[in-house]
Write a structure and sequence with these properties.
The structure is a homodimer. Chain A is of the alpha+beta class. Chain A is about 30% helix and about 25% strand. In chain A, strand 5, helix 4 and strand 6 form a beta-alpha-beta unit. Chains A, B: InterPro entries: HypE, PurM-like_C_dom, PurM-like_C_sf, PurM-like_N, PurM-like_N_sf.
Chain lengths: ~350, ~350
């Protein structure tokens, strides 16, 4: 390893592990920040080296969202806890109708966690942040004793600026509006569970984890009267739609035949006893728009690499306020209720 | 317990515990948010019920800071993990020379954690937020299996607006500047360790955990040319001053006799083999100002309830750049270096 004269690396990233000193706030913490975090996240705000970051004024309304990430396993097909932590929060800010700009990240590390894994995870975060066009501007690291964590928990808080004048909100769905999704349902949760249970279904099921902020910008440009944007994560499509139905005091009628689900995900879910409409997504949008903006919104979604399978799946109704119904493949109609209890723990 | 007609509480806060369903994103998560979090944190932004919160534009530069909190024990004299999580982040934003406005909070809960403890902790957060004048505007909850946490880990991210035109930063200390502290050193860490080790020193040592944003406002009004503001948390006074000395490429000379330390903290530290100047504070400021603003800054600090013991403790020097020296009680002069290794794990 090349070492600059007069400077010796303090971390052995290839073979070293996290120890309690890395969370002490002393020299070992400074080494970890300099040789690992700053290497990946370098930007003017972070490099200031203060406990906090100072950024320019934000002249539009400010959107903030945060998520703790405890996904198990840490690495899975299509991503890892690092990319997930950035994409999840980028998407939560984007669905406020906002452009995400900054991320604050905290790390709770378990003593003994390999520095090589941490380096890979932080590298994934940086790559996802570059793709989304956001900067990781400040952070914090704590270390807990072996046996008091699961290697790494990551919390991310995203900050962005509103793109629209009007409120994009779960309270804004109106009877007659159409319900769109940006692609196939259930990919992320099914990928995690297959990985966790060591199941193989002939083909590897990949998480859909992806930053959706550029798709949101395109939708809001094409369909400026968009009423609701949501990312159907934990609890999946149906739980998120139930939340919106309650918040907007409207009913919803879905057409099961229109809801895109990958065949391999459907097969895996059947095997696992799951319903893909209740399984978490990490790279999909629910978009609720007035009927006259359906085509524009769909075209905007389909022009994005993460929206090629976008589809209209249902309609907002005046009747059955607070409830979601679905016309099934069999032609019947049934109530599709909230997720009860725990379906998939530690999915994000 | 009074129950509104037609509404039955889903949570038994007095006797219930956290279970995996509370992190699923389904109905149990919604119950926990409504009956526990929203009860304490109610405000217009949070009540919108979106995944994120939308706030007005911020016309001054924006300051952001975040901290993960893993303190053990969760409850200690002078505070708990909840008040600490709010005060710590409020202070990190304030020392950017900013007025903290909003908090985003994530909770990683361990299966089996008593809801009564969670309710008490969230209540403490709300009380600290009220005192500081900040709003908890958005949050997230995850649950991990029993044995994979320590009851509760809390991450808070604070967002505020700059109060000054110029940069308040660890890079801004200048030779000739004076070094002030707002009160006694080492109280928080000593309180935690005494509690953890079940030690009693005749009197209960209390954490100094407190929101310092109002004191910061007073200082910046009285001493507008303040160069550096810091809260000496992990690693204590000496580690923080070493960081500033490196960042500003200056030396520092402290006068040990001027540094306020409570006698009971000094006694406890001696017993525990600690140096209070390396022990974490959670309600104290380091303030570095030009000589002609010393009296104004000290007066501003002393007029605040958390600054009654404010003192001038040293001077910034041109020589010994990057190092901190101290004239000891014995009259000698010694180098006081960074904290090496782990002094006090899980202190915040």
């Amino acid at each position: 390893m090349a070492v600059k004269s007069g400077y010796r690396r303090a971390l052995d990233i290839r073979r070293g592990v996290v120890d309690m000193t890395h969370g002490s706030g002393g020299r070992a913490t400074a080494d970890l920040i300099r040789e690992l975090f700053a290497k990946h996240f370098s930007n003017d705000y972070l490099n200031e080296g203060h406990d906090g970051a100072v950024m320019p004024p934000m002249t539009n309304p400010v959107a903030v969202s945060c998520d703790a990430h405890v996904v198990k396993p840490l690495f899975f097909p299509g991503g890892d806890i690092g990319s997930l932590a950035v994409c999840g929060t980028v998407n939560d800010v984007a669905v406020c109708g906002a452009k995400p700009l900054y991320i604050a990240a905290t790390f709770i590390l378990e003593e003994g966690f390999p520095l090589a894994d941490l380096d890979r995870i932080v590298g994934s975060m940086a790559e996802a942040a570059r793709e989304a066009g956001v900067l990781v501007v400040t952070g914090d690291t704590k270390v807990v004793e072996k046996g008091h964590g699961d290697g790494i928990y990551i919390t991310t808080t995203g900050i962005g600026e509103k793109l629209t004048e009007h409120s994009i909100s779960g309270r804004a769905a109106r009877p007659g509006d159409r319900i769109l999704v940006s692609g196939t349902m259930g990919d992320h949760g099914t990928a995690i569970l297959s990985q966790r249970e060591n199941m193989s279904f002939g083909t590897t099921i990949e998480s859909d984890s992806a930053p959706l902020n550029r798709m949101v910008e395109a939708i809001l440009e094409a369909a400026p009267n968009t009423h609701v944007l949501r990312d159907p994560t934990r609890g999946g499509l149906v739980t998120t739609l139930n939340e919106i139905a309650v918040q907007s005091s409207v009913g919803m009628l879905l057409d099961e035949s229109k809801i895109p689900v990958r065949p391999e995900v459907a097969a895996a879910c059947e095997f696992l006893g799951l319903d893909p409409l209740y399984v978490a997504n990490e790279g999909k949008l629910i978009v609720i728009v007035p009927e006259n903006e359906v085509e524009a919104a769909l075209a905007a979604m389909r022009s994005d690499p993460y929206g090629t399978n976008a589809a209209e799946i249902g309609v907002v109704t005046e009747e059955n306020a607070g409830r979601v119904e679905m016309t099934t493949l069999m032609g019947g109609r049934r109530n599709v209720d909230w997720l009860e209890g725990e379906q998939l723990p530690r999915i994000c």
